[in-house]
Amino acid sequence: MADLPFHAFILWFLAIVIYLFLLFLYILVFPRRKPVQPPVRRPSTASILPQMPTKPRDLNSISVELTKCRALCPPAFIHRYAGKGEDRIFSGIIGGRFPVIIVADGASSRLNTSTGELIEGTGSCAAELAVEVAKKYLTSGLHPDLSSTDVLSCLLGMYDRVAEELQGNPGATTLLVALLYESSEGDTKTPLWCYSYEGDGIINVITPARRIDGWSTYIKLLAPGQKVESTATVSGRGLMVSPVVGCVVYEQEDLIYVASDGMDVVSSWLLKNYNATLQQFILSSLQNSRDTKELNKVLENCPYTDDAVLGIIWTEQRHDRADY
Question: What is the tally of structural domains in the chain?
């Protein structure tokens, strides 16, 4: 009995040795597994690739690079007079190359020559159709290899096409167009302001480089005189008078604007409130802010007596062309 505690101690010691030996074997033979890690979400390849810079659009303007300049068509100004809404305008680039402004002022009433009745409310439909037809006709008719004579012939043909499309429409409308075209006549391309009109309105060219007493001068391309008791118009019956077409040579940083006759009241209002004419105000606004947003905000405050629309094409010198 005296040896029992010693035997128990030996057994206890052997048990510990065997346990440690088995634990060693377990660790050696069966290595501890690593906990399963959740999959790592790698960033998308597309998100880490360098982004190609995009060319910002100037002032929400639509622009095109021509040989001697960059031409821009900022958003047009449109004022709808209460109860009318008969003026229509397109200002933009056609054919990916030609900046153009098309203005139509629908006649609010027209005398039916067969019945003697006064037809009301047909001007807006005629003006809208005239702008769409003119835009489509010029898009298909203008090409880079035309001469100046060809461009003017295209403008004349446009009026005949508009008159054809207006057949069956009781309305009538004025139609004014101005565009910047690079002629391929001669050895060098010569940009030209080409214009046409049937009816009254405004087509003016401002040349900032040509100044008198510090003020930029301007050229009136639309000569008044097409309005007596009523204005000259185009309708389904044809043209009231032959349209006027013409062109002038582009000068550096020229600006052209086309407007309906509803803008006539603006110059006197601007002189009274801002001490500037319409052409002076347009030029200073673009030179100061390079945008028409503030210009359009100011024009909206004028006390109009009719619908009014205004489109502008302004140009910048191309500094990447050292040959001009």
Answer: 1
C-alpha 100/C-alpha 192 separation (Å) is: 12
What is the spatial distance between Cα 220 and Cα 150, in angstroms, rounded to a whole number?
23
The CA-atom distances, in angstroms, between 229 and each of 53, 80, 225, 232 are 57, 23, 11, 10
Whole-angstrom Cα distance, residue 16 to residue 21?
9
The two three-digit tokens of residue 29, written as one number = 């033979």
Dist CA 197 CA 26 (whole Å):
100
CATH number, position 220: 3.60.40.10
Q: Would you say residue 32 lies in a domain? A: no
Question: pTM higher than 0.90 for the full model?
Answer: no
Report the distance separating Cα 62 and Cα 34, nearest Å. 62
* Long-range contacts from 164-167, C-beta under 8 angstroms, 24+ separation: 165/129, 165/130, 165/133, 166/126, 166/129, 166/130, 166/234, 166/235, 166/236, 167/236
> Three-state DSSP class for 264?
helix
User: Which strands, in side-by-side order, build the sheet including 172-173?
Assistant: 172-173, 234-235, 238-239
Per-residue pLDDT of 286-314, as tens digits, reads 888 777 888 999 999 999 999 999 999 99
Give residue 216's domain range.
58-317
Residue 306 lies in a domain: yes
Using CA atoms, how far residue 3 sits from 7, 9, 20, 79, 313, in Å, is 6, 10, 26, 120, 119
C-alpha pair distances (Å), 206 with each of 160, 203, 254, 256, 278: 30, 10, 6, 6, 11
Write the DSSP symbol of residue 117.
P
